[in-house]
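Quick look at the format.
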Amino acid sequence: MLADPSGQARRMRAGDRTPVAFFLDPETTARRGQLDIARRWIRTVTLAETIGFAVPAIVGVSTAASSPAVALPALVAAGAVEGAILGWGQASVLRRTLPGLSKTRWISATAAAAAFAYVLGMAPSTWASGITRWPGVATIATMSILGVAILLSVGTAQWFALRAHVANASRWIPLTAVAWLVGLVAFLGFVMPLWHQGQSMPLTMGIGILGGLLMAATTSTVTGLGLRLVLPR
């Protein structure tokens, strides 16, 4: 919508030219600003998460035949690297709107949360493998709790860094949880039909990285479009 505080467009004649100065109303300006931030977020965060996820994807394939004592710390460390790269991409965009946001704190929180999520995600196959031998109801309940904790981990950690800068920071937690849920569904829906026993390591890694790209694009799109619910206008 175009608006003019005087009720008419102001005209300034210069020779035979008659330029017209229009004023954008605050609502339109805010909406354009939100769209610009969303576009930057989707581009930057998709790239950052794709690069970041490639690290645990490669480490995971490389340590698939290793003992839990080797695979668990390797993947947790790789998860922390993924989180750090993701956090860097997110903070780079957020600081355009929130210049007081600590980039270091955001990156550290994201890296720690990602490592924590990998610890929980690997529980059934490593340090808590006994879960799979529990009675059915107990296994399902425990796995559900672990799943919810994984989905909430990144958003909760980032909330601590965000809450001092925006009034609606608490909305970031469910928003990121939904984004990661949708992203993980997209990832698993892509890679599971393509992964088979006996595949070469490069092919397995390639499938995982492509799946990571799909997951990154999905999660960044959901969070990017949802930023308007969190950031000040």
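Next, a different chain entirely:
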Amino acid sequence: MPCRTRVNPIKQQEPTDMKMRLTFGDHTMTATLYDNASARDFASLLPLDLEIKDFGSNEKIANLPRKLTVEGNEPFSNERPYDLCYYMPWGNLAMFYADYKHTGLVRLGRFDDRFEALHAPGEFPLRIERIQ
């Protein structure tokens, strides 16, 4: 039987020193990425120019140019507003500004500041770039 290394789910939820800036409309926010394979894969795509739009009553979404790796990711149960997630079935970013609970998500990180930007209704061009 092959030996498999099990990923520590707690480690996947630890912040790294990798920060990014998200700019849309008149808003700028920063976020810190977590230590997991999906977040590292996402960072490899930066900088990105996407479109951000409202989805449901608790999040904004943006379609990525390709699906991210999800290898080694474990489900999490401590969902909080201002999480930055990847929705595996559709391959898009999910940026939550209110409570949520959904399967199929990988948490990529958390927003650091200027949370009110996510509450601005509408559809905007979105620029995401690494700042550290």
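The CA atoms of residues 20 and 130 lie 4 Å apart.

See the schema section for token definitions.
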